[in-house]
Design a protein that fits this description.
heterodimer, A: about 170 residues, mainly alpha, Four Helix Bundle (Hemerythrin (Met), subunit A), 2 domains, about 75% helix, B: about 100 residues
């Protein structure tokens, strides 16, 4: 293993640990605005993981759609609803300890199963570029593509109808 | 560099469980939506990971669809949150008892 390889894998594991840390902060932190910022960092980290998996187009879409669009929506909603109550109000319900115990059991089970399973195929990553994806969207997957566009239209109209004021 | 499959699988499982913890313990509706986004991201990484050695095109196309669905979910969900906030003056899940018998 040469220097470049070890540097690459070290940065890869650093990204994984960083994503887990920011995700934990997202669900734990009291101030919801800080949670939204940490969520943005989590999403950027996931985009970097996509880059490591040679899915460059998905990484770009992740940054554009998640970090650009969805985070803007979330921060908008937080700003519009933030004036509720005092900051001393508890931000999590009383199920914290039992949920943590159940999820820790599930996590131990999952990790032990993953480590026990003999994954025979080494991960051979093939590159996919945007041209191939576009051709697949317009050829092989054209029916789900059209259905998704219909769903987006319905969601747009639905969001306008729900959020509109009553008069 | 080669990426070990099981390390990434452990990473996505932990990310999914972190998101589930947030979705189950947050009181704020926006916080719950944010946790759901984390869970969706964990599933997406798994999708790309398994598709990478089988059929990378199909996997990435469906991850695109999932991202679009997440955008639709977020827009409708946040519109519902704003409507509830206008009507009820609260977005804490234990104070909204609209649908309780």
């Amino acid at each position: 293993m040469n220097l470049f390889d070890s540097l690459a894998s070290a940065s890869f594991y650093a990204v994984l640990v960083g994503v887990l840390a920011t995700a934990t902060l997202t669900v734990m932190v009291r101030n919801l605005f800080h949670a939204a910022i940490f969520l943005a960092f989590t999403l950027i980290g996931v985009a970097i993981v996509y880059l490591f998996l040679r899915a460059e187009f998905l990484a770009g879409i992740q940054i554009l759609l998640y970090v650009g669009a969805i985070m803007t929506l979330v921060i908008f909603a937080i700003m519009l609803t933030s004036k509720i109550g005092d900051p001393q109000m508890p931000q999590s319900n009383r199920q914290g300890i039992p949920v943590l115990m159940a999820l820790a059991a599930a996590g131990v089970f999952l990790v032990s199963m993953i480590l026990k399973m003999p994954w025979n195929a080494a991960l051979v990553i093939q590159k996919t570029d945007a041209v191939e994806l576009g051709k697949a969207l317009m050829g092989e997957f054209v029916l789900p593509f059209e259905i998704v566009s219909l769903v987006l239209l319905a969601a747009m109209i639905g969001a306008i109808v729900i959020a509109r004021s009553d008069q | 560099m080669t990426i070990p499959l099981n390390h990434l699988l452990i990473f996505t499982s932990l990310l999914f469980l972190i998101g589930l913890y947030g979705a189950l313990t947050r009181r704020n509706l926006v916080g719950i939506l944010m946790s759901i986004e984390i869970m969706l991201n964990a599933v997406n990484v798994n999708f790309v990971l398994f598709a990478a050695s089988l059929s990378p095109k199909a996997g990435q196309v469906f991850v695109l669809f999932i991202i679009v669905m997440a955008a639709a979910t977020a827009s409708v969900g946040l519109a519902i949150v704003l409507a509830i906030y206008r009507n009820q003056k609260t977005i804490y899940t234990d104070q909204i008892n609209l649908l309780k018998w």
